[in-house]
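Entry 14. Structure prediction run on the chain below.
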Amino acid sequence: MSADGPGWLWFLGWMFLLLLSAFFSGSETALFSLTRDQVLRLREDSGKVQRLMAVLERNPSGLLVAILFGNLVVNVLFFSMSAVMAVEVVAVGGAGAEALVGALVLLGILVFGEMIPKALGMSFAEKVVGVVAVPLRGWYHVLGPFRRVLERLSAWLTPAVREVDLRPDELKMLIDSTAGDRGFGRQEKGIVEEIINLPETRVRALMVPRVSQTFWNGAWSVEQALGVAAEHPMDLLPVFMEHEEQVVGYVELSVLFAERRGERRLIELSEPVVFVPETMRADRMLERFMEEPVRMAAVVDEYGGLAGTLTVGDLLQEVMGEFGVPQVPDVEVLGEQAYRLQGQLSVREWRELFVGFVPAEAMNELALDTVSGLVVSLLKRMPVVGDEAWLGNLCFTVEQVRGHRIESVRLSLAGGGAR
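Output returned:
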């Protein structure tokens, strides 16, 4: 290569290859960073962009192969020409000039062939796609049969897609890392975590216990039921016949208001309930609610007796939280070693903490679903205000009771040993 005309042509060819490298790099980034809304807008654009979008939708892997192959060929030619230029420079300027040319070539391909075009493709994806649409689609069709061979070879070398099971703890870490990002705050994080925890939750932890539920006699008339509903407002009314253990269905309160014949009995308006064991997983229960046209389940214990009722709303409240109601903190710090706990606070995670602290035989007798259930299992009777239950040096003092259900408990750490 001489310093006259052919030398300049060689340099112009080298610059043209650098421009082609930038073209392929920017095209790849712009096309595959388009959002769904941007793709929809480009489909309604002029014909040249529409045709490229059709190729992207029909054969994205083929388009990617064409771009990558073009970039590979261009970069190989670019470095080959750079090597020839370096040899010529050595003859003129020595080894130092060769090192300088090598550094400039590497810097040029990284900055002007990769970084800048990729940054432009990411920031101005729609505009870049509009510019590269015609030449890129032409290159896609020029490769033709050779591109299809490359596609088959790529598919053969690529391992089969394997479903990767993400463990709940890994997903929780992922959620923690994204909490606080724009559009994903603490509330959304809490909802996702509750969904993750559904398989670990049993319906007995979410149901309304029988002792806390208001039941409706199926023999009552609509007029009688509306009178009781004024004192016990509920959306879904569990209906029984003969005795409360014999739940036969439920009635929606809106149905009662819409019923004009006040003498009709509730049993005539009731919908059937499904019967499920109290050990059923909450996620399975949610699936069943989605598959069957029912909104209430009757939860039975191990002896077949009625333990409580569960509605779709109870499950959604577990995930979404209660709407329109000021949230009482589940845990309130009262002092250095004293806390107030709400009765429905989940204590499922306490089991691992109690291992080695509580004897194994005692662990099997504890109801480790909620604070209320734990205290009742320690007392072995229905609670009253002022009751104290001990677990090691942990003292649970019952503060509030509604019906037979514990509303809040004071937890304190005693200085002594186990009681």
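The radius of gyration is 35 Å.
Filed with the rest of this week's runs.
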